[in-house]
Design goal:
The chain has 751 residues and is an alpha+beta fold. Among the domains are: 3-44 and 56-242, Biosynthetic peptidoglycan transglycosylase-like (Penicillin binding protein transpeptidase fold, Orthogonal Bundle), CATH 1.10.3810; 652-739, Immunoglobulins (Immunoglobulin-like, Sandwich). Helix content is 33%, strand content 17%. The strands form 9 sheets. A 5-stranded antiparallel β-sheet has the order 7-6-14-13-12, with helices on both faces. Strands 20-26-25-22-23 form a 5-stranded mixed β-sheet, with no helix packed on it. A 3-stranded mixed β-sheet has the order 2-1-5, with helices on one face. The longest helix is centred in the first third of the chain and has 25 residues, at 3-27.
């Protein structure tokens, strides 16, 4: 007898011995670690809030492996797999003895091993415990199959097998194969598609449709013909299935919201399904808004943005880089988590600390006059000083000197501690390191930290940590009183500061929002943070390398996408006035509770039991007449004011400020700018481009409809004093005849 034939007989006799019960005697002593059957390296699969897959990553073994329950494999895949791989799967206990005897006969007749009579259970064992293909391995697999059938149900064994089976290349499991070859889930595949996939189990490389389409088709057609011959499918089902086209190329898993997905994964190494907080609609809006804003900017400038849910801290949308996938240097960098200078965006937290401490109210008088610190004198963005201003005006107009005075009054340690507790964890240095510049942008934070901090403002004092996974427990910690945070929101509430960006004023519909811009030193970072009672939005623009650019001004660059995003969010109304917040009559000048000597008063907010109740100290009765006692920091201003000749006190146009640049946006409606001045005596006559606009009698401002171009606005007041301001109105993406020169350094009024 020839040697190969003797080997075939030996294998066959060994198989018969196993069928006779030899394997049963060994089964009891064979170890079978069930965890190695139930677990293997799988792909992380990320679901959005709707339960839809938006991103999938390779497993630790660099495979696409996406396990799904048997009921999510649809009708055809389990059916065809059993009919082709193990027809009597539901009847035997791990070894199909009839198939084993048939295999013995076929092997002897062929003179070589042509059939191994493997069952689905034994193949699952082979996938779970890879071993060299030997006679001993075969015995172990059959024996382990018997044991496995006692440990798991038939349905579970079939589910595990179809999830672990290879389907060519680095594809493992029917769900991954269905999505890559057919761009659909396993539950959606047709009979013909199921036959194609099951046909690959005999030779994953040989029958890959993207490489061997003809072989794959022949194998599929043979399976369908066998099913028809055995009466398992109808003639019509066969005809439809045989006519289906073979996929000749591999597809890919969805890979959306790339930086959000990476942030959600964090340090996670294992696979599995992750239910994230992503809102796909808001994600699309954020991506589109940032992309639109970047169209008119140099390609080295990019953007990042975050939209959060205030109640839960859920990150609803997250763009780490608006240039992602453009092939531009730095376009893969997640700028939302990179440290950047915040500019003026942290100023509200200094005022919040002062309100909480009771040393300020929105009406409190602050001095916007020269102030030296660290050998330097901070100046405002428009390079001017305004003299006495209220805390409300100082914060709304983002004045630098008053912010430094507030920082010093509240205490740098208190402000820094508040910032850290609010989520600005990048502030790791001491107050001596930052000095007064802490509140002017002399520190570093990230877009994500900025969003977390502004969520605290939006929740009126409650910190919520950003949450990317819905199963993570929400974090809640009150940092400041509801009343103090409400005062900040009331000041930052937009009542026209973004008017050139509005098609109509949002407050007409009671849909207010609070916002703050920021521009870092040297025009390296442009910020806008905005919030409603429901949501917080933060947008940053800059160069990932930190290079400066004159276009990087918060109001000019980062505010337009904020407006578009806020318009897309559901209506949120506005905050109800907290019980702690009271309205009291204060001196119109000092902001203190009104005293008998005060010439006039006005209503404003304060915190009951917290805000100072000391009456106005600036107006006193001396020698039978009322006098004004100015604070030391305003004495020089008061002296100038009292002089008959006031060469430095002249009419000044404060809106539009010289050098301001406004942006026309296609939001519909009339877009106007207020005409305002300081030091001018009514009536005031206004002109734009030499044409008369109107006469201003009282405090109500006139408005001029914005038109593209460079414009000169001028005034003449009742004393014959004049003032001139030159400003620019741009339309994004349209180059005017006056814009052919190099970009200029711009100063805008609210940054």
């Amino acid at each position: 007898m020839k040697r190969p034939l003797r080997r075939v007989l030996r294998v066959s006799i060994f198989a018969l011995f196993l069928a006779a019960g030899g394997g049963l005697l060994w089964k009891a002593s064979l170890p079978l670690p069930l965890d190695k059957v139930l677990e293997w390296p799988t792909s992380p699969v990320l679901l959005d809030r709707r339960g839809e897959v938006f991103s999938v990553f390779l497993s630790p073994e660099s495979e696409w492996s996406v396990p799904v329950p048997l009921e999510q494999m649809g009708r055809w895949l389990p059916f065809v797999a059993v009919e082709v791989e193990d027809r009597r799967f539901m009847e035997h206990g791990g070894i199909d003895y009839a198939a084993l005897l048939r295999a013995v006969w076929q092997n002897v007749e062929a003179g070589k091993v042509v059939s191994g009579a493997s069952t689905i259970a034994s193949q699952l064992v082979r996938l779970s415990f890879p071993r060299p293909r030997t006679l001993k391995t075969k015995l172990i697999e059959f024996t382990a199959a018997l044991k496995l059938e006692e440990m798991l149900s038939k349905e579970k064994i079939l589910e595990l097998y179809l999830n672990r089976a290879p389907f060519g290349g680095n594809i493992r499991g029917v769900e991954a194969a269905s999505r890559i070859y057919f761009s659909k889930g396993a539950k959606e595949v047709s009979l013909g598609e199921a036959a194609l996939l099951v046909g690959m189990l005999k030779g994953p490389s040989l029958y890959r449709p993207d490489r061997n389409a003809d072989a794959a088709k022949q194998r599929r057609d043979a399976i369908l013909a066998s099913l028809l011959e055995r009466g398992k499918i109808t003639e019509q089902q066969y005809a439809f299935s045989i006519a289906e086209k073979i996929p000749v190329s591999r597809g890919s898993f969805p890979s959306k919201a790339f930086h959000f997905a990476l942030a959600a994964l964090g340090e996670r190494k294992e696979g599995g399904v992750l239910e994230t907080t992503l809102d796909p609609t808001l994600q699309e809006i954020l991506e589109r808004s940032l992309a639109s804003s970047l169209e008119s900017l140099p390609e080295e400038i990019t953007a990042a943005g975050v939209v959060m849910d205030n109640d839960t801290g859920d990150v609803l949308a997250y763009v780490g880089n608006g240039r992602l996938g453009r092939g531009i240097a730095g376009s893969w960098v997640d700028c939302a988590r990179r440290p950047r200078s915040p500019g003026s965006a942290l100023k509200p937290f200094a005022y919040l600390a002062a309100f909480e401490k009771g040393i300020l109210t929105p009406a409190s008088l602050l001095a916007d006059t020269p102030l030296a610190f660290s050998g330097q004198a901070p100046r405002n963005f428009d390079m001017t000083y305004r003299g006495p201003v209220s805390a409300r005006t100082a914060l709304a107009d983002s004045l630098n000197v008053p912010a430094v005075r507030v920082l010093r009054s509240a205490g740098p340690e208190m402000v820094l501690d508040l910032l850290r507790n609010a989520g600005f964890m990048g502030l790791t240095q001491s107050t001596s390191h930052y000095g007064d510049s802490l509140i002017l942008g002399g520190c570093e934070t990230s877009v994500l930290q900025m969003a977390e901090g502004y969520v605290m403002l939006a929740t009126l004092g409650i910190r919520r940590m950003p949450r990317f996974l819905r199963n993570d427990p929400p974090y809640r910690r009150r940092l400041v009183s509801e009343g103090a945070a409400f005062l900040v929101a009331d000041i930052l509430k937009d009542t026209g500061r973004l008017l050139p960006l509005h098609g109509k004023r949002i407050e007409h519909a009671r849909e207010w929002f609070a916002f703050k811009t920021g521009t870092s030193y040297g025009y390296r970072d442009a910020w806008t943070a905005a919030y409603t009672p429901r949501n917080t939005v933060v947008v940053w623009m800059g160069n990932p390398t930190g290079k400066a650019h004159p276009e990087l001004v918060g109001l000019q660059a980062a505010a337009p996408p904020i407006v578009e995003i806020l318009r897309s969010l559901p209506p949120a109304g506005w905050y109800a006035t907290p019980q702690q917040v009271i309205t009291r009559t204060v001196c119109a000048l000092s902001g203190h509770p009104i005293a008998p000597a005060c010439p006039s008063g006005r209503p404003d907010y304060a915190l009951e039991g917290v805000s100072s109740s000391v009456p106005c100290p600036m107006h006193v009765i001396r020698d039978g007449s009322a006098r004004t006692v100015w604070p030391a920091e305003l004495e020089e201003f008061a002296l100038r004011r009292s002089m008959t000749l006031q060469p430095e006190l002249k009419s000044t146009i404060t809106s539009p400020l010289p050098g301001s640049r406004y942006i026309l946006t296609p939001l519909g409606g009339e877009q106007r700018v207020a005409l305002k001045a300081e030091g001018a005596r009514a009536p005031i006559y206004w002109f734009v481009g030499g044409e008369y606009v109107g006469k201003q009698e009282g405090s109500a401002a006139l408005f001029w409809t914005l038109k593209k171009g460079v414009h000169t606005v001028s005034l003449v007041d009742a004393a014959g004093r004049t003032a001139v301001s030159r400003f620019t109105v741009n339309a994004p993406g349209v180059k005017g005849p006056d814009e052919s020169g190099p970009p200029q350094l711009l100063f805008t009024p609210a940054d």
